[in-house]
Design a protein that fits this description.
By secondary structure, the protein is mostly helical. It has three helices and two strands, in the order ββααα. It has helices at residues 27-35, 40-44, 52-66; strands at residues 7-8, 19-20. α1 packs across α3 (52-66). It is globular, with a radius of gyration of 14 Å. The chain starts with 6 loop residues before the first strand and ends in a 12-residue tail after the last helix.
């Protein structure tokens, strides 16, 4: 069973970045909206094809796949 049936990745859409099926709303954009204070209900209002549940699925997808990311900290000299 696919835990994320509404998350797709197609090289012809957003360069293959994962997005919500039927939209051009990338998971990264959903996370940006979340990081600026959005909640699933208000994020869903930004696009006519989004629902709060689709937004929550995108958030769960990001959380699941970030667990496998390697974070490299860098310091930029001022």
């Amino acid at each position: 069973m696919n835990a994320f049936p509404n998350i797709v990745s197609n090289p012809a859409i957003l360069g293959g970045k994962p997005c919500i099926r039927g939209t051009r709303v990338g998971i990264d954009l959903v996370m940006e909206w979340l990081g600026t204070g959005g909640v699933p209900e208000t994020i869903a209002q930004k696009h006519p094809n989004l629902t709060p549940e689709l937004v929550r699925e995108a958030i769960r997808y990001a959380a699941r796949y970030l667990k496998n990311e390697i974070v490299i900290e860098i310091e930029i000299a001022a």
